[in-house]
Amino acid sequence: MSDTDSAQNALESENEETVKFPKKIKHRGKVLAKIYGKSKSYPFYRVSYYAAGTRRLLSFRTYSEAKTKADNLVKDLAKGSQVAALSAPQARDALAALREKYPAGTLATLRVADGPWRDLAPGSAELVAFVRPRDLAVA
Q: How far, CA to CA in Å, does 16 sit from each of 32, 38, 55, 112, 120?
């Protein structure tokens, strides 16, 4: 085992011992993600969060990987980027829902390249957020 591996293992065991699970990842006082510790039946760290009104769950081998992902998700969600928090299949599902029907009150955010408006063409924008009223959680 290299010095880097042993240092990483020491950091992992220190983090695991000092962290109380579930670890809540907050932004401005609002919990946007939770990290769950390992268990006997599931030996991975899990990150739980809501995107587009649906609970998502990701698994990681190390606490540091889970914490990094949770921090990045919280930043994206705080900025309002629901699609950035989705996996590729989930983003495709959101796009399919957009093509199926665009209900009243739905918000879609599209990102376009810098340049004049006249250069915009079909298919030249990226869908970065898509939220239907039914996707919003009732507080």
A: 21, 9, 24, 42, 50
> pLDDT (tens digit, 9 = 90+) per residue, 41-92?
999 999 998 876 778 899 999 999 999 999 988 887 777 666 566 666 766 7
Distance CA 70, CA 96 (A): 26
Residue type, 92: R
Q: Which residue in the block uniquely carries the two structure tokens 């992902």?
A: 69
pTM of whole model > 0.70? Answer: no
Work out how many domains the chain is built from and give that number: 1
**H helix count then E strand count, the chain:** 3, 6
Where residue 71 falls (left for φ over 0; alpha for ψ -120 to 50; beta otherwise) is alpha
* Domain range enclosing 42: 3-135
